[in-house]
Amino acid sequence: xxxxxxxxEATVTDINLEIRxxxxxxxxMDLLLQADPSPAMVMDYLADGTxxxxxxxxxxxxxxxxxxxxxxxxxxxxxxxxxxxxxxxxGKALLRAAIEEARKEGAKLLDVGTGNSSIDQLAFYQKMxxxxxxxxxxxxxxxxxxxxxxxxxxxxxxxxLTFDLDETDDY
Length: 171
What we know:
Radius of gyration: 16 Å
Number of helices: 6
Shape: globular
Strand order of the largest sheet: 1-2-3-4-5-9-6
């Protein structure tokens, strides 16, 4: 069965991702930059975080980066699904895998930050059980060299959401 046909027929119930920590980020840079347009920022958090690849039947379908923030708090720094696999439940499976990896490391809280203009991502994280915690005002205007626009809105602020890993397994 061809990859495109497999992607069309996939649903969240039959996605079985193989998750693996990666030492070399180079083969995954296109995916990482899809979620974060700054190569400098990506390289910065890769230095302190762990990159995980997700494959399904031998095909790379996504990546995520986890970083330890201290004690029992971790942050999901990047999560990205290959374009041809978007809208098929891979994002949910990938986020579940990130949550499980954080749990394995002893995390009790998992933060994720996304732009004020990232409407779909804000809805996605909340549907998956994350709760809004704070807003880092002007994060993107101060840390990114070029303005970012999504949904006709300038991305200025980072909305930080938190998932309490002790609170629920229902995601």
